[in-house]
Amino acid sequence: MGRNVRLGLLACAGLSTLALAATASAEKLGVSSTAVSGVVIHYSQPSGSPAPAKVTIYPNPSYATGTQVQTLSQAPGTTIGTVSAKAIAGALGGATLPLTGSLIVKGAGDTYLSNGSPVPLATAAAACTGTATHTAFWVAQLTAAGQTLEVPIFVDAIPPTIGDAPNPEAAAGSAKINFCLPSPDVPPPAGAAFGAHLFDAVLAIKGVWSGGSNEYRWRAVVIPYTAGTATADPTKAVEIQGLERRVGSIAASAKYSGLKAKVTGVVTEAGTAVAGAKVLIQGGRKAVRVTSNATGDFSATVPLRRRLAPLKVTATVAERDLGAGACSLTPLFVAALPTITCADVAIGGWTFAAKVRRAR
Length: 360
Fold this sequence. Notes:
Blueprint lengths: L27 E7 L3 E7 L7 E7 L10 E2 L8 E11 L5 E12 L4 E4 L2 E4 H9 L6 E9 L2 E11 L3 E2 L2 E2 L8 E6 L15 E10 L3 E2 L4 E10 L13 E8 L2 E10 L2 E10 L2 E2 L4 E5 L5 E4 L5 E7 L8 E6 L2 E2 L9 H6 L4 E7 L2 E6 L1 E2 L2
Parallel strand pairs: 17-26, 18-28
Antiparallel strand pairs: 1-2, 2-14, 3-13, 3-16, 4-15, 5-6, 5-14, 6-9, 7-8, 9-10, 10-13, 11-12, 16-17, 18-19, 19-20, 19-23, 21-22, 21-24, 24-27, 25-26
């Protein structure tokens, strides 16, 4: 891998601490948020599934109605998040390539690097979405085995109205986030370098979506390639949905007694308890691990090296798969893609850390 390569990677993000992998037979969309990580978007599919040609993600419509806030006006050069991803490199014997990096805002007249050469973002946008004009241009700047990779992302705000009439698209989301990926089944330049097939990607974005304290449904449309070709197959399109429970949080307090501390706390998301969260308490003589109960509560006695030692508590909540039965097709997508199916609904997983307060 001694040169810059272009992996048509999905963007998604890099995120905070979502160490999750696809475990079933369908594509998945996990969305979560915490005060530290911002919004985390996790796209995954089984590695043996047809490679995605295009993925379009729709944030919940409430981000454009005033209930919540969507900001897509960051200045070019602004870093708005982190990205991590995994791709199978068919040309490297099926090795898995881990990729990490940052998400950078670009201008409409800027370029990104493809195989070491600058390509106008407007050119890439027209090829991906049919138009060179978009609300925002983002580039995922990634590294793999010491090499730099750049992936363009095209974002469009969806206004609630068009003139005085409701905008039909606004029922699907507040924006469209578009990723177009080269086929792993044909050689470059039409296909992906090293036959790379993206199957897992995480994007953590800060300062773009904010506000709210409920559950918000995100949607995505995935159009795969016909296996063995560089031709997208819209007849095999699927819709996937992710439930963002804003926001994930952990709170804990400690009652100290000599070289011990009794730590109690609660794990919540969208203001409701989270059962089964894995809780790690650090700062004592040894790390203590407990699991939240049915009401989100946890407690543990922590041995200390010194009196009143400060403690930190971290909650990790797994992604929860609700399956295809929880998914209802979005009418807008059916109108455009009559054979689309609803593949899955998932609740996003997250990790959040906080200081343990001293109980009075």
